[in-house]
């Protein structure tokens, strides 16, 4: 899901969301991202399978228009079968999709998951109604709910040492089941709490999860993470590897310092000592940037 390439982002065209006549006309010439009930979409040899609107039933969520004026919608329904295509999760294929397909998949999935959570009022339990082409849900009393995006931080903690003996702190989540006895390790992460800056969240999460104090936090970039509705804010941070690691057993099964040489060997597949995060993740990008000395 690296956001580079020749495809510019969609114009989300928010002014069209309240224009039912335009939306009805746009639907007739639109491409549709179809998301199955389990969050997967059809992926074929050319990437994300986009359908024409004819025959696609369900709530129409307007995503935007591309640079040619072509509209895009999302619908939550079981996709029709397509030859040479299979249902895949975004995390499985995000790194291999072109930027437009990755963005479309992420936007559609995040918006659909928000609708699934807000079909009933959190205050009264009464049904809510979709409005503005999927960007509002209205309660019976007129109160409006808008799509939620929850900020989270994800950080590569390292010792600042160049070369193969430089070290980074990686953790293994308690819910991550080892594959053939090989455990996965990734960067630490956590949600930003109310009244907290992203930088404060970085320091708090590392201390809570691994018992380590960090300094010199440096922003790296962000990535939409629709599981269900997060925005991952990536950081690098420095720490002293001589400080004892003390994990939170409710979050991590293990956390330890690895050398650049050890991590590089796993990234280059010359070692299977442990596994790294999925290539589509910002965690993987943080790790590979650090491996290249760009932290």
Task: Write up what this structure looks like.
It is a single chain. By secondary structure, this protein is of the alpha+beta class. The protein folds into two domains: 14-145, Nucleoside Triphosphate Pyrophosphohydrolase; 150-291, Nucleoside Triphosphate Pyrophosphohydrolase, CATH 3.90.79.10. Helix content is 21%, strand content 29%. It has helices spanning 20-28, 90-93, 99-117, 198-210, 260-267, 282-291; strands at residues 31-35, 41-44, 47-48, 51-52, 61-65, 71-76, 86-88, 129-131, 136-138, 144-145, 150-158, 167-173, 188-191, 214-225, 230-239, 252-259. Strands 11, 12, 13, 14, 15 and 16 form a six-stranded mixed beta sheet that branches. The protein has a four-stranded mixed beta sheet with strand order 4-1-6-5, with helices on both faces. A hairpin with a 4-residue loop joins strand 14 (214-225) and strand 15 (230-239). Helix 5 (260-267) crosses helix 6. The two termini are 20 Å apart.
């Amino acid at each position: 899901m690296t956001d580079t390439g020749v495809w510019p982002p969609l114009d989300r065209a928010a002014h069209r969301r309240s224009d039912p006549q335009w939306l009805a006309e746009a639907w007739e010439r639109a491409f549709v991202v179809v998301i199955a009930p389990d969050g997967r979409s059809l992926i074929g040899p050319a990437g994300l399978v986009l359908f024409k609107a004819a025959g696609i039933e369900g709530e129409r969520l307007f995503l935007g228009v591309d640079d040619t004026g072509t509209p895009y919608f999302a619908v939550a329904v079981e996709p029709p079968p397509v030859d040479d295509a299979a249902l895949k999760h975004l995390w499985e294929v995000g790194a291999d999709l072109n930027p437009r397909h990755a963005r479309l998949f992420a936007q559609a999935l995040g918006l659909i998951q928000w609708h699934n959570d807000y079909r009933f009022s959190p205050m009264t339990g009464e049904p809510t109604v979709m409005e503005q082409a999927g960007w509002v849900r209205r309660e019976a009393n007129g109160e409006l709910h808008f799509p939620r995006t929850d900020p989270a931080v994800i950080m590569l903690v390292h010792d600042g040492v160049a070369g193969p003996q430089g070290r980074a702190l990686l953790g293994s989540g308690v819910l991550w089941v080892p594959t053939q006895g090989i455990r996965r390790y990734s960067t630490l992460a956590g949600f930003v709490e109310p009244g907290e800056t992203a930088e404060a969240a970085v320091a708090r999460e590392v201390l809570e999860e691994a018992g380590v104090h960090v300094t010199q936090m440096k922003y790296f970039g962000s990535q939409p993470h629709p599981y269900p509705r997060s925005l991952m804010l990536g950081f690098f941070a420095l720490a002293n590897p001589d400080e004892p690691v003390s994990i939170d057993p409710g979050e991590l099964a293990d956390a330890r310092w690895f050398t650049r040489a050890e991590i590089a060997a796993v990234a280059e597949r010359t070692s299977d000592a442990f596994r790294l995060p999925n290539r589509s993740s910002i965690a993987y990008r943080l790790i590979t940037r650090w491996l290249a000395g760009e932290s």
